[in-house]
Design a protein that fits this description.
- The protein has about 425 residues and is an all-alpha fold.
- Helix content is about 85%, strand content about 0%.
- It is globular.
Length: about 425
Amino acid sequence: MSRLARLEGSARFLALVKLANVGLVLIWGFAVTFVFVRVLPIAEFQAFLLLVAFGNFTISAEFGLTSIIYARLRRHWLGGEEEAERDGGFRLEEMGVLFLFLGLLVVGPTAILLVALVGGWLTTGMPLLFLLFFLSACLNLPALLAKRALAAVDGNFLWEGLDCARRVVTIGLLLAMLAGLDPRLSVALQLAVSVGVTGYAIVHVHRRLAMTRRHWLAFRVGGGHVRAHYLRDIGSSAAFTVSDIIAYNAPYFTIALATSDARPMLVFDFFFKMSRALSMLVRATVEAALPRITRAFHAGDTARLRQLLGRALMAAMLFAIGLSALLLLAGDRLFAILFDARATIDRADILLILLALAALTLLSVSVYVQAALGRFGELLARSLPFLAGSLASAPLALLLWPARFDVAFLGLYALTLLGVALLHLLSLRRLVRV
């Protein structure tokens, strides 16, 4: 067994590498805010936050295809030739079709963004910067598919190493803006680095699956197979994904409609960044355990599955506790540093954020595990209450307590997350009883 294979087989080492990469991703995410709030006027920065939200919508709008491909390719990889010969089993021609779809998904929103910039719906004095940043963000779509494909064939470690290198370079390019590097040049170079890393990952997938050029270009065969065997999963995952996209990102827009005050949006953006940080840590932990979880599930080993899920939940809650302690001790200072002291955050806001993060932890473990197992119908049923609560939180907050809109909104949003988390716990209990 090669050294790389041994590293791939170690759940602990894989978790450490994934957590290191998560750390870099978090640094990059905070660096984006830290840098752009300083290089852009406040009005431009508010427009930039809307651009980021639109980018989040776009990235999430792959309808869960990357989760579907992971679930299908993982079954194929674990089942070998027997799985490959089953009717509806994974076919290599699927890869080219899915990458083509994601490419088109980048083109469509980019055209929408261009129309918004030209038509003045998104007001900015730096349209090229916004366009380049959006393209850089959208490149995460093919990168995510390459990542999931590598993970399905036990290539987690390779991707994490590549992504770590990419993040180090892009963080350096971000910080270089503060030293005088033109923001447009910085983002363009980040885009070029991401293209190179993603291209290398796709080449490795090509080699690991022993694909040929015919597989990538067989759109008719691959499309027919996707149409014949993906539609049910695509329908459920698409509805689930759209519901989750709106639930997580709609508050940016509903808050903007409810008030022109920048503070509530900055407070929500702070929560959003904390939730992203926590969900990435949880995801790294769960993904490190997924090779074993998927083996136990497909082998029907319920006892082992229950044990692994319990460990994943415990590890996730440790991260939630750690982040909560950090926010209690230094949340106000972190908020001031992040947003260049342009607003303040209250203790009540922080306490509600902690409640929301605890609920989000349970929800995240359930989503990552069940998506990897292809249980998209179950996830859809759990996402609809979250969608309703997210959309209603800002209007209800404005109606019930306009003087403390931020506290009212966060309270309603946190209660929504708590209710949905309890529903997900019920789903996990049913999963380990199958």
